[in-house]
Amino acid sequence: MKRNEPITSEQIAEKLHLTRAALRPDLSILTISGILDARPRVGYFFSGKTAGNIVSEKINKIKVDEIKAVPVVVKEESSVYDAIVTLFLEDVGTLFVVQDDGSLVGLVSRKDLLKIAIGNADIRNIPVGVIMTRMPNLITVTPEESAYDAAQKIVDHQVDALPVVKVEKQGDRIKYKLVGKVTKTTITKLFVELGKI
Ligand code: ADP
Questions:
Q1: How high is the pLDDT of residue 141?
Q2: Least enclosed by CB within 10 Å: which of 46, 62, 108, 195?
Q3: How close is the Cα of 40 to the center of ligand 1, in Å?
């Protein structure tokens, strides 16, 4: 391709002693994945991109906004008992703690809940606010950050979930409005999606 570009599928077929039909699936995979550029009535060009930099280009281009999932939320006053029930009912591993206006105040992971439940604490009377990891100690992402940035934060900070927040200024106070979540599941789903041909 590099030596003969632009080259038509007829010319490639002739050089390789194959039929055009036999080449068609290979050419379409190479074109869809960005390794080849196809120009109508001109032929195929080698794009100069390798498989590796096509993947990194893609995951850096995909924004958190496109992949974020719906967060399950509880209030700071909810009991640890209710939080555990919510964890099972909603089938999630992390609960986000918000105020009435939707601003993020903290989160509780399954291990936070397990830790308090394993002792003899009266979990029906302990509010989530007492055990949660609290802002400003949360690792967050914004909708504009890339899927790659989010995955990097999950790995670097060894956490299962990141709240997606929009930063809003109210006077001299900064509020973090919770608009989604990115979890290990979100990243795994993206991985599967990108792996599909
Ligand atoms: P698990 O409890 O299942 O191990 P994590 O690894 O996510 O789940 O949580 C480990 C600890 O880190 C918990 O105490 C949790 O409150 C805290 N944590 C979880 N997510 C974050 C985050 N995005 N930012 C800061 N701390 C977090």
A1: 98
A2: 195
A3: 52
d(CA 150, CA 138): 13
Residue to substitute in 109, 128, 155, 186 for testing ligand 1 pocket (most ligand atoms within 8 angstroms of CB): 109
The residue whose CB lies within 8 Å of the most ligand 1 atoms, and thus the one to mutate among 91, 133, 141, is 133
Q: Per residue in 137-194, pLDDT tens?
A: 999 999 999 999 999 999 999 999 999 999 999 888 899 999 999 999 999 999 999 8
What's the gap in Å between 115 CA and the centre of ligand 1?
Answer: 12
Cα separation, 175 vs 167, whole angstroms: 6
In CATH, the architecture of 64-196 is Roll (3.10)
Look up the CATH architecture of domain 9-49. Orthogonal Bundle (1.10)
**196 confidence band (pLDDT: 50, 70, 90):** confident
* The pTM of the whole model exceeds 0.90: no
Q: Residue 75, CB half-sphere, CA atoms under 13 Å: how many?
A: 6
Task: Give exposure, 99-137, as e/b (b: 16+ Cβ within 10 Å).
Answer: eeeebbbbbbbeebbeebbeeeeebeebbbbebbeebee
